[in-house]
Amino acid sequence: MDVKKSIQDAGYIAVGAGVIGFQQAQVRRRELTSRLVAKADAARTRVHGSVGAAHGQITDQVGQTRGQITDQVGQARDQVTDQAGLVRDQISTSVGSTAGTAWDVASSAAWEVATGLSGRATGLADDIREWVDPAVGELKIRVEPLGEQLQTVPGQLSRVMTAGPGRVLTLVRSEPAA
């Protein structure tokens, strides 16, 4: 009867070791799941922050470029107006009565040139935005699925960790008794 008791004790010890091992595996699974979720959240936050910062920088650059172009157009308009004034004064001195007509023609031409440049500057800024916005959108489209895939990793790991002990028990039970 001593052998039977020893076998029974060995069986209890094996079951106890299996239970402890299963509990340790569950604790490790929970810890790993927590770490993976935290890393996935951190990665998503960094990606969204980077995309937002890039979009903000590009928008700022477009705004600055538009402002610079508008300033340059204004300066060009002022220079043309000044030159037209000088021409008018010279014509007035040399021609007299025809100076008024020349001034009107020169002023009108200067205004048309300045207005055309201003329209082109606005169009250029809009063109830049049209090129940049799709690139930012495409970047978001490519990055967001990666974040979603990272979110599924803890669940998959949990299913594997949960199924593992059941498989071991099935294998132990299916062994023929000696």
Secondary structure blueprint with pairings:
Blueprint: H1 2-94, H2 99-174
Observed structural traits:
single chain, 95% helix, 178 residues, rod-shaped, 2 helices, mainly alpha
The tally of strands reads 0
What number of domains?
Answer: 1
Topology as H/E string?
HH
Helix vs. strand class: mainly alpha
Helix content bin: over 70%
The largest pleated sheet is described as: none
Shape: rod-shaped
Distance between the termini: 18 Å
Mean pLDDT: 76
Q: Radius of gyration, rounded?
A: 39 Å
**Proportion of strand residues:** under 5%
Low-confidence stretches: none
Total helical segments: 2
Structure notes:
There is one protein chain. The chain has helices spanning 2-94, 99-174. The protein starts with a helix and ends with a helix. The model has no long low-confidence stretch (mean pLDDT 76). The chain has one domain. The protein contains 2 helices and no strands. With 178 residues, the chain is mainly α.
